[in-house]
Amino acid sequence: MSNEFGFGGNESLDVMDTYADIVYCIDLTSSMTPIINKVKETARQLHSDLQEIMLKNYQRDIKRLRIKVIGFRDAYCDGPLAFQVSKFFNLPTETEQFYSFVNSLTAKGGGDIPENSLEALALAMKSDWCQTLDPNIRRRHIILLFTDAPAHKLEKSKDGIDEFYPQGMPKDYYDLVNLWGQQKSLDGKIQITTDNVAKRLGVFVPKGVYPWDYVADNDFDNCQISYINPNQGGSDISTTRILKMLSETLA
Predict the structure, then answer these.
(1) Which end of the chain, N or C, is surrounded by fewer C-beta atoms within 10 Å?
(2) What is the CATH number of the domain that holds 71?
(3) From the CB of residue 44, how many other CB atoms can be counted at a distance below 10 Å?
(4) How far is CA 223 from its chain centroid?
(5) Mean pLDDT calculated for residue range 4-8
(6) How many other C-beta atoms can be found within 10 angstroms of the C-beta atom of residue 226?
(7) Which domain holds residue 146?
(8) Which helix (DSSP H) or strand (DSSP E) does residue 245 occupy?
């Protein structure tokens, strides 16, 4: 039997309690109005929608759900608007605060086509993730990224940065991959608290531009990639498609 979201149900398994943290990394440059609007549309119902999907289709009861937003543009031309970072919001109790934050996001800026999506991923990885030692509770540390553009190479920061560029960034793409895989940068100076079992990465990105084809080649473990049309702001992404990606990473 399928529910209103079109996902098939499975009633035969025992229900498992789940603690989940989700970090949205959202490209906020001028073309991204469609996906920003979809995030706004789903904000108020996100907890109830995910709870319904997870119970009916995956036998997961979301006992704790927190969500954080990292909006990004181009640190090399957008100054103080390059990154907009929220706290973790506890859902459903802080749904209105979460909605207020995402409702304040607007698509503007960006300069040249590449954006600072890799820095946004690094910031997400460095989040204060939920922890539990209870073996009966499943944890999920989820990053969901949306962009319709290529990324600046992390090495570009060597040419000069300003006060608005985030501190403690990986030195290059492979340093970022190592941070995700080993919970620390290659030189050990950056460490994160994601759990290798709990971590999940989902990306909505264009095909054929740096670095998303590398990501598709399994550089990041526990990663799902969904291709979107370039430079169209995610207009081809439905809210059902977003919820499907979230539910699959939560499962």
Answers:
(1) N
(2) 3.40.50.410
(3) 17
(4) 11
(5) 51
(6) 14
(7) 16-250
(8) helix 239-250
Whether the per-residue pLDDT at 141 is higher than 70: the answer is yes
Reported as a single tens digit per residue, the pLDDT across 226-246 is: 999 998 999 999 999 999 999
> Amino acid letter at 92?
P
Query: pLDDT at position 132, please?
Result: 86
User: How far apart are alpha carbons 52 and 59 in whole angstroms?
Assistant: 10
**Angle between helical axes of 239-250 and 46-58 (0-180°, round to 10):** 60
The answer to the question of residue 206 being in a domain is yes
| Whether residue 128 has pLDDT greater than 70 | yes
In the structure encoding, which two tokens stand for residue 38, read together? 């979809």
Q: What is the CA 84 to chain-centroid distance, rounded?
A: 14
86: left (phi over 0), alpha (psi -120 to 50) or beta: beta
Q: How far is it, in rounded angstroms, from Cα 146 to Cα 1?
A: 31
What is the C-alpha separation between 130 and 95, in angstroms, rounded? 18
**Looking at the 3D structure of the chain, how many domains does it have?**
1
Asked if residue 2 is part of any domain, the answer here is no
Asked if residue 9 belongs to a domain, the reply is: no
Residue 195 to residues 140, 182, 192, Cα–Cα distance (Å): 8, 10, 9
| Residue 194 DSSP SS3 | coil
Contacts of residue 108, defined as CB under 8 A and 6 or more positions apart, other chains included, come to: 28, 29, 30, 73, 81
> Residue 156 carries which DSSP code?
G
pLDDT tens per residue, range 29-56: 999 999 999 999 999 999 999 999 999 9
Has residue 6 been placed in a domain? no
pLDDT averaged over the chain?
93
What pLDDT digit, counting tens, does each position of 164-204 carry? 999 999 999 999 999 999 999 999 999 999 989 999 999 99
Residues linked to residue 72 through DSSP beta bridges, in sequence order: 27, 83
